[in-house]
Structure formats: C-alpha cells, structure tokens
Amino acid sequence: MKDQSRRKFVKSSLGASLGLGLSAPAAKELFVHHVYFYLKNPDSAADKAKLIEGLNKLAKVPTIKFVHIGEPAATTRSVIERSYAVSWLCFFNNLMEEEIYQTHPIHLKFVEDYSALWEKVVVYDSTGPKR
C-alpha cells in the first residue's frame, strides 16, 4: 500500500469512527477542545457525579460533532497526569463552530450552574497542522 493512500485511509477511518464524516480537507479544519476539571472537593463522588451530569447537558450544544467525558485511567507511567477529576473532550468542524459553542446558552448555563464545583480548569485547544 502506498504511503499516501495509507494516510487517506487512516484519516477516513478516524473520521468514520468518530462519526465526523471527515474528508482530507475537513481534517485540516477540525478543532479539538479538551478540558480538564480539578474539583474543589476531589474526593467527593457526589460532586464528580454532578459535574458529569452537567457535562451530559452541555453535550447537547449543536455545533459539537463528538464528545467524550472521561476520568483518569488506571495507567501509571511517569508522564501521565492523573490529578484531574473529569475530562471533557469535544470535536468541532472548525474554530467558528467552537466559538459558537463558547457563547451558546447551554454552555453559559453550564458554567453558571456547575463552576462552583471546580477549583481549576485547564483547556487544551488544537487544530490540525498547516500543510
């Protein structure tokens, strides 16, 4: 299999598995928003459950193409950060759709209703490399 066709295959497989229907040009536009929440009460199962409840509501913002709510995995390599409580990973078709998400009433309500639960939030936004 030629290298170029393998790249196309991997991109299309990734897009299909995420339900994004990505073609090669759309992959360049893909905007990834990854948020790590650090709770004020990190040992509180109730606070974690409440935050996850809020994130499930937040997932209804229509510009989000794919979302994953996660918790630290049971991995132990030295490079792994495990001090967060919950992670929020979502994909958008482009920066403009992520900006719509940021000002969407569901997002604003999420911050209003759930921000008292966390002491810190760390956000990693990324886009594909320019080619």
Automatic annotation (TrEMBL):
Record InterPro entries: Dabb (IPR013097), Dimeric_a/b-barrel (IPR011008), TAT_signal (IPR006311)
Protein name stated in the entry: Dabb family protein
Highest taxon, organism lineage: Bacteria
Membrane-crossing residue ranges in chain numbering: none
Pfam families: Dabb
Domain spans labelled Stress-response A/B barrel: 31-126
